[in-house]
Amino acid sequence: MSKASLVSSPADRLPDWLAGDALSAELGAILQHRRLTAVYQPIVELADGRIFAHEGLIRGPATSVLAQPTDLFAAAETGGRLLELDRLCLDVMLAGVAACGRTGKWFVNVCPDSILAGRGRPEACLRALAARGMRPEDIVIELTESRPSGHYDHLRSQLRRYRDMGFGLALDDLGEGFSSLRLWAELQPDFVKLDKFFVRGIHQDPVRQRFAAAVADIAAATGARVIAEGIETFDELEPLYRYGIGLGQGYLFGRPEAVPLGAIERETRDRMTTYAPMTASPARATAGELLIEVPTLPPAALNEQAYQLFNADSDCFAIPVVDGGQPVGLLRRHHVLETFARPFSRELYSKKSCMQMMDADPLVVDRRMSLEALSARVVAADRRYLVDGFIITDEGRYLGMGTGFDLMRRMTEMQISAARYANPLTGLPGNVPINETIDQLLADNARFVIAYCDLDHFKPFNDLYGYHKGDELIQLAGSTLVEAADGRCDFVGHIGGDDFIMLMRSVDWQPRLERVLVAFDDGARAFFRPGHREAGGYVLPGRTGDAAFFPLTCMSIGAVKVEPGQYASHHELSAAAADAKHIAKKTPGRSLFVERRVPA
């Protein structure tokens, strides 16, 4: 029930002062009097901040020399009482869950030795759960393994009994132990936990990023979900989103507590949504759009069956091999046909399992992966994926396939569409993508800020300095907004003329907008003659023909905070943003007005 690392021998791990009869007596008293405390840490859906499950952890008595779980479990193994401690931990954890009355899914740490030695243990667990009104579907056995073990067959057999009853299975600390990858292949767990070593500072370390991407790929192919452990900062979230890791655990969301959290803090949840990538593609094109139906074969199928399918259909480019709804490989057309074309190859291979000829490492992607991310993955991977295509799944379950040709065609269409609706002066998205993006955010019930940005006294400047300088000033405004935006979660669009829109999910949106005002002022001063800069403006004939003083061009911003359900469409929201902008422009000089009134 602990996350004690037992890489070295238990005796080596114990401090010198934790030895002898006194230690044995202390451990015996803890076990006899059940002097253990359970605490619970949330496991969170990274997409929306909902609590997916809790992990139960055990603490020793606060005043004991065995207060720390690492010392407690090391002492138990040294004294030959590890199984006894493990079973007591499970009972204490379940008792705590029942006492708090909270429903949900609970991850329980169990060492492999407890599983291996547990004759009749699954039935006993069922009785313990039933006595507390819980179901085996509520429990995920989190297997801790950090030493080499040769009992894979026995362990797999014992765990199958638990899984047949409805228990889930998770593999803990992937990448830390000696045999975790072997266990993953042998046990096919429902969840794998990416060790915190690979999460800490992942946004600054390409090696950690590559490891996370590889784990995500294997998980997609095996149907497992990845839980990233040890998340402490928001910056660590972005690469996890990028590689499709959907669950997280760490101090960022909550520390282990005696009472399980009902929800993570709203501020944390809101800020998490800002780190989910916000692409410039309003429709959020995903791999699911490329889905095509392709005939599949089970692992028991013969190579002759694959040959006949390819031979009968010239458009069949690949055949996925699917076992129990999960893809395990890919038969490639040219490989099968070329092999059968060789002398005597048909006689050699036709009656053998298709698993001998399949590619056991196909590209497998989830249907929710963005086309931008998929394109980057295909380009970075082996070029055979462009020819043979990729398998598309839904949380590990086979759906169909996609082709490199369809991916390139769709990406080209998106680029053409983006260019068609982009403002020719700034290259920023124009009205169509702006409106589509607003409608998508509203449909997603997202919290965001719309900022309407407009230049004050731009027409007099354009008249005096010429439209070439006016165009350059508009380009300055666009580049200033882009530089201030968080590219991961903010959107900048150019309505036309000197009007811009920002759609912001960054938590620090207001300081960013304030920096925009200052940065534009600083940049715009270089456009004016020294005398105009010193005077703070210039005199020109006004619309009535009378001379009038015009201040230097500056920017005004009207911002509206949008909560779920407040606006039905981009029409309503655009009108509210325009009203906020008009109020901002009434203030002399640069100004930011934030609409605080709640719409009726």
TrEMBL record:
CDD domains from the UniProt entry: CBS_pair_GGDEF_EAL (cd04598), EAL (cd01948), GGDEF (cd01949)
GGDEF domain sequence ranges: 446-598
InterPro entries xrefs: CBS_dom (IPR000644), CBS_dom_sf (IPR046342), Cyclic-di-GMP_PDE-like (IPR050706), EAL_dom (IPR001633), EAL_sf (IPR035919), GGDEF_dom (IPR000160), Nucleotide_cyclase (IPR029787), Rev_trsase/Diguanyl_cyclase (IPR043128)
Transmembrane intervals: none
Limits of the EAL domain: 20-270
Name listed for the protein in its UniProt record: GGDEF domain-containing protein
Keywords: CBS domain
A GO molecular-function annotation: cyclic-guanylate-specific phosphodiesterase activity
Source species, domain of life: Bacteria
Keyword Hydrolase on entry: no
Location of the CBS domain: 290-348
